[in-house]
Amino acid sequence: MTARVRKASLFRNGRNQALRIPREFELPGTEVMMHREGERLVIEPMERSSLVEYLANKEPLDEPFPEIERGLPRPVEL
Known about the structure:
Elements: E1 9-13, E2 16-20, E3 32-37, E4 40-45, H1 51-57
Antiparallel strand pairs: 1-2, 3-4
């Protein structure tokens, strides 16, 4: 497998430095993970997790549930 190499542009977006990523290097989603390896900046796509995984990793709430009013209408089935 040959490595693809392409020059990319850096620019300023407010106080942040941004990178214009060429189409063939586009990553899925809207967020990435970044870390440095020496002088190298590594950008990786975020792993998508399911709702079940997300909830399993959340800390329990430290506040009680609010009281539920009686007499609320029943949901309508579509």
